[in-house]
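Researcher: Here's a chain I'd like modeled. Treat it as a single chain, no partners, no ligands.
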Amino acid sequence: MNEWQEQEGTLSPYRVLDLTDEKGLLCGKLLGDLGADVIKVERPNGDPARSIGPFYHDEVDPEKSLFWWAFNTSKRGITLDIELPEGQEIFKKLVKTADFVIESFHPGYMDRLGLGYYELEKINPGIIMVSITPFGQTGPYKDYKGPDIVLWAMGGQMYPCGENDRPPLRISDRSQASLYGALTGTVGALMALHYRQVTGQGQQVDVSIQEALSQYTNQLTCDWDMMKIIKRRGGHILPHIKLNIRRIWECKDGYVLWFYFFGPAAKKRNLPLVEWMHEEGMADDFLMSVDWEALDFTIVSQELVDRVGETTSRFFMAHTKSELLEGSAKRKIALSPVATSTDITENVQLTSRDYWKALEHPELNTYVNYPGSFAKFSKVMINPSHRAPLIGEHNDDIYKELISASAESETAEQIMTKKDTSKEEKGERATTPLQGIKVIDFSWYAAAPIATKILADYGATVIKIEGTTKPDIQRTMGAFKDDIPGVNRNGDFNQWNAGKFSISLNLAKPEAIELAKRLITCADIVVDNFAAGVMGKLGLGYEELKRIKPDIIVLSTSMQGQTGPYKSLPGFGFHLAALSGFYHITGWPDREPMGPDGPYTDFIVPRFAALAILAALDYRRRTNI
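Model: Modeled as a single isolated chain. Structure tokens:
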């Protein structure tokens, strides 16, 4: 930790050299927000990303790019020309003090400068290089250019996004694909760090943004694998269903996201809204007569869907977004406003969780509000620590540190001498980063199961716990092999839970809770995505689990967190995407918002969840708490 860092974070001992452009800036930001000492290395006249608008008060200035500010918090900054021999020598000296180098140059560029991974590992055997490029370091596309719109298309995210009578869409954001790649690179960096702690070896992490996007295309590839279906565009059409199921509804002052369920969950999901409409005298006889338990997608008619929709539309048009949100929270209805930028900044849930962070800009004599941490940690405070660096702002400090070779700096070489050698002493060799890590997975549906699948992919032992009478709902919906339903035939479930073990427990029974606790005493991590408070009511809350396993790491991924006035609002990735602003910025200007394809945030959250777990694991290893 250096004087620029105000408090310890989960990654405080580590140093990162950030050479990335917009394809990788988020990677360095996240590592910095988690506490690492991130040094942004810019060319002498500043990074090209400083020219990306919009700009503070619309003043075009490399020090006032809001894009630059957003993705470079928690970093120090230096200028250095690594294309000059003297610059290369200085960079090599910096590498001796570092744990990570992150870069996003074209494949081969760093090698041509004599700064590729195989040269840097000679200087620092423990160095971890994260390379983030459009198509990876190998393959026939490796030298192709990949602007964001191309990657969005080639990653499979664009084709199903939009309306069926118009061309495909992408989210109206400059760098959505690159943000996927950078987040994937951050997870890869910490996976490599865990591997280094056991083996002493650094490595290169090769991130293809195309591959990162292709991993999570909301059933696009699964539909084809299971049923040979090419998913259609159309924001109101759910996968595999020919019915036009409406998701976006106009209200008094904007739009809300709501959709009717059909099948096993229909009564539970639909009746609270219907009863609310009835209370206000807006539910007609037809709507009140619908037998939700008797309907599923295979027998319901478009005529019924449309007639129910007419009544529902009139109800929504009689209310504002805030009225609908308040009423939904009270009745536990899965409805969300389609939030605008203003709505997000005024969101009472975010405010109640102290999400926004005011960072000082002394050069402007003001403070600016920034988004806060992606997760709340119980042991340490994780937040952006300071605003983005000015051009060359920390040249004097960092170059003086380099000259003095301060003994206080904990280098990669020093960290390596303290690595866990228990496996080596036993004559064993780690083959995967998370070998020996045990995870108890109570999660269901998509986001959290995908996160635990990431852990399983990298060697963790993951035990999935499902109810005996209520298995994971994903087993009962979506694409079935050969279109034959069955709890073990669902493509999405198998895709998101591969590599795990499974047991069934009826958690309504005390003996099942005791068995779950026995499993947890042997575990490192517990994951759930139940509504806030559910695990506590089961006797499996964090405080109880900490009592029986003091070093347990618990990840809870409910939709809006464990605290705040809307902590219990139900919903899926569709709803969170609407709340987060993704629906508002996706669509045609002459039509209602479309939103991205499917439950979009269910495929962003898993990487953030995995990152939080990896950071917590490293903090536990270093501190024994």
